[in-house]
Specification:
Number of strands: 11
Strand content: 15-25%
Oligomer: single chain
Bound molecules: ligand C2E, magnesium ion
Shape: globular
Radius of gyration: 21 Å
Strand order of the largest sheet: 1-2-4-5-6-7-8-9
Distance between the termini: 70 Å
Protein name: Bifunctional diguanylate cyclase/phosphodiesterase
Largest sheet: 8 strands, mixed, barrel
């Protein structure tokens, strides 16, 4: 009897594993033709100047419009794309769409594009970026590239030339999810980046945690000393916004202002500012038109 039960449990586990392998394979196969079928879309989330109440840039975020499955989020396909060698194609598609969309934005607004380490270590990445710029006509300083700390890590070795090529092109380089990778300080010492994006896990609890507040404030000061711009990710409450402004954090991004949307032209809700400041009517919405 015990043996039967054991076996039954084993089979349940087996079915579960089987199901996961099937789903994974299914995703992988569908993903292979996603670019060719035009299923990769680019959505946008504004990056706001917390002091001036203006939009300075918009971040391009990949979405996969999968037939019969709806909109698939990057968390479900970027890692797979990296593993099976599809990230270069998907990344170039997003980069191209983002550069083109940015040319229609007013006021020299920039577009910020995520770059996976696997794209970055390729010898031709500099050429890919150059092509996206010349095809769209976007000015290089209107393109920001967000590198994760592991991509920057690669730049220490094999991708040093790519890093220099991008510097020479005049695009702006950001470290994404700052603080979550290994040896963040080594990156800052070795690499001449323009911008740090403080990961949202540090921002989330600043209202309740003195420790998190100290960390964020420390990063803001560090960025300031190094003459880097700093963006706080994942701002959801007016309380977080107020604290960040007090700390002198210049830029921010988060659901408080806008969730990612399919059009590049930002529609930003500045109610968060208004609720916490003295002036102006309480339900104003600022729209920056393309
Ligand atoms: P990320 O670059 O750090 O982007 C921020 C993520 O946080 C986005 O999720 C965004 O929708 C979400 N977010 C923004 N504000 C808030 C907020 O206030 N609260 C919360 N809870 N979340 C917020 P998304 O679009 O699902 O993207 C997830 C990650 O996938 C990105 O993190 C990025 O690492 C990766 N990714 C997205 N698009 C691309 C791409 O085109 N290429 C590459 N290589 N990676 C991409
Ligand atoms: Mg990013
Ligand atoms: Mg990030
Ligand atoms: Mg992140």
């Amino acid at each position: 009897l015990a043996k039967d039960r054991g076996r039954a449990r084993y089979e349940v586990f087996d079915d579960d594993l089987r199901g996961r392998i099937d789903r994974r394979l299914d995703t992988e196969i569908a993903l292979r033709s996603a670019v060719d079928l035009g299923q990769i879309e680019t959505w946008y989330q504004p990056i706001v100047d917390l002091r001036e109440r203006t939009v300075v840039a918009t971040e391009a975020l990949a979405r996969w419009r999968r037939p019969e499955r709806g909109l698939v989020m990057p968390g479900e396909f970027i890692a797979i794309a990296e593993e099976v060698g599809l990230i270069k194609e998907i990344g170039s598609t997003v980069l191209g769409q983002a550069c083109l969309a940015a040319t229609a934005l007013e006021g020299g607004m920039a577009v910020s594009v995520n770059v996976s380490p696997r794209q970055f270590v390729r010898d031709d990445f500099g050429a890919v970026v150059k092509r996206a710029l010349s095809t769209s006509g976007l000015a290089p300083n209107q393109l920001w590239l967000e590198l994760t700390e592991s991509a920057v890590m690669d730049a220490i070795g094999s991708a040093a030339r790519t890093f220099q090529e991008l510097r020479d092109l005049g695009v702006r380089l950001a470290i994404d999810d700052f603080g979550t990778g290994y040896s963040s300080f080594t990156h800052l010492r070795e690499f001449d980046v323009d911008l740090l994006k403080i990961d949202m896990t540090f921002v989330r609890d600043i209202e309740n945690s003195a420790r998190d507040r100290a960390i964020v404030e420390g990063v803001v000061r560090l960025a300031d000393s190094l003459k880097l711009e700093v963006v706080a990710e994942g701002i959801e409450t007016t309380g977080q916004l107020e604290l960040l402004r007090e700390m002198g954090c210049r830029y921010g991004q988060g659901y408080l202002f806008s969730k990612p949307a399919p059009q590049a032209a930002p529609v930003v809700h500045f109610e968060g500012f208004l609720a916490s400041s003295t002036a102006i009517s309480s339900r104003e919405t600022a729209v920056v038109r393309a």
